[in-house]
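**User:**
Make up any protein.

**Assistant:**
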Amino acid sequence: MAEQAPAKTPVKSGFVGLLVDYGPILLFLLVYKLNSPSNRSDMVLEIAAVIKGTMAFMGGAIAAFAFSLIRYRHVSPMLWLSTALILFFGGLTIWTQDQRWISHKPTVVYVVFAVMLIVGWLRGRALLKILLGAAFEGLDDAGWLILSRNWGFFFVVLAVVNEVFANRDWFTFDQWLKAKLWLFMPLSFLFTFAHMPMLLRHGLAAEAKDEAESQTPHE
């Protein structure tokens, strides 16, 4: 009797993939905006809005993790680490009632990913493939290595930009949160789409293009 090939792990569709990756931060923004006071100088209500938003962020992260595990029977290392850090820094934010913890969480994620990817690239290993838990059909090792290197240096840029917006002497918490939506997310999408010609040159199958576009590294 011929041995059956193992079943392939279901691939996230573009919309569902984006919802799993970015749903928690969008939920954070929505809950914070619904609860933030009109008078920003009212620090009691402001902190309360941050706490409620953080709790929604943590709940959304757990829901996204559970959905990925149940629906796809697989959770990427990137989602494991991101969820763990959301819960850790979210817990610190709620416990200390200090919004700076959740503001600096992305920097920690970006730095960890950057170090992993750049060190892996220097050693000739494309660790992005492991972090994403993806296998873009047809993409050769050289393509993966280029993609891994580029995302490594891009994460360095994101870490620096996040620290700028997280500095409360320069920007408010509300401005930092808006930057997450209107700056960081569009930059990540544009960076992903800009790699499509390179990925196709390195053998990415046309039918795998949607998967490559939806598997955007994120914090």
